[in-house]
Sequence to fold (114 residues):
Amino acid sequence: MSFFISEAMAEATATASATPAQPELVSLMLPIGLVVLFYFLLIRPQSKRQKEHKAMVDTIQKGEEIVTAGGLLGKITNVGENFVALEISKDVTIHIQKNSIQAIMPKGTIKDQQ
Fold:
């Protein structure tokens, strides 16, 4: 019975050496293509949005009207390193993280809402 195993091993090595290496390269093209596709469709746009948001947060100044991620609309009264004082109503000021700022609104947006 051991001689069948040796014949099978010999046959497997003979067929393996006869096949060209090109199908291995072709089989790698699909995963490489998927990685490239994911990069251009998911990773690159997300990193671009993160850079734009960071630039927006870094340029925040006192007196600008903003909307937070929670939907609060208010005017910035004080800018710190990590936090911002946001006046959401007359004599009502809250402190929020800079990262929770979603958008800078045009001047006069608060007056239009009242």
